[in-house]
Every structure is written in structure tokens, then in C-alpha cells.
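> run fold DUF996 domain-containing protein
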Amino acid sequence: MEPLNETRQAPLGDSILTTAKVAGISAIVSLLATITGVIAFLTSPPAPVTAGEEGLEDNAASQVVNSASSMSVFISLIISLLAFYFLFRFSFLTKNSFKHNDRTQLVKALYSLAGYFRIWGVIMFIVAIFFSMAFIAGILTSLFS
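> ok
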């Protein structure tokens, strides 16, 4: 088998290594941004909710707002951790594969990158379903009111 860092493949190898470095940096920045968001959520006081605007009792309205905010922070943290894992794994395995001329590590790294894109594909599909449901609900609301 030919070594990974052979001269005829140097431009491809350099671009893969550059991509791995950028992926590692973006994984760390993404994780730090999410941790900052969680800290900001935990340290900031809850937003005041006026019950009259929501049509609920005072206690029920504040519980709905607080639980929705908590769920969004929790889901954001899970997505960020998954993205960090796959991107950082891609970065680490790619760098090691070129350091040790190991093609199997490069294949594992590319599978990790594929997993990252697969996760974002599923997330975008779920978001598209929610937007479609909101659009249909808006149409039905305008028809029956």
C-alpha cells in the first residue's frame, strides 16, 4: 500500500488535513458556545410572564415558559455534544492517520464525518416536519376562525 503522504497526493492530503484542523477548531468553538449558553441560562433570572397575555393562570404560564426554555437548552446541549463528538473524532483520527500512514484510521475518520452529516440531516428533517405542521396549523386556524 502507498503511504498517505505521498507527493502525488500531497494537495489532497493537505486539504484533508486542513479540513480536519478546521473541524477540530469548530467542534471546540461549538461546544464552548453551547456551554456559555447553558451557563447564561442557569445564571439569568427567568423572564416575567404576564398571565393575561397567555390566557392561563399566573403559575401555569410561568411553568410553561420555564419548561420550554429548559427543554430548548437541553436539546441544544445534546446536539452540540453529538456534533462535538463526531467532528472532534474526525479531526483526531485524520491527524493520526497522516502521522502514522494508516488508511484504516482515515476511513474511520471519514465515517465519523459521515455520521456528523447524518445527524444534521435527521435534525433538518425533524425541523422541516415541525415547520410543515406549524404551516398546516396556521392554515387551519385561519380557515376556521
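The chain has a mean pLDDT of 84.
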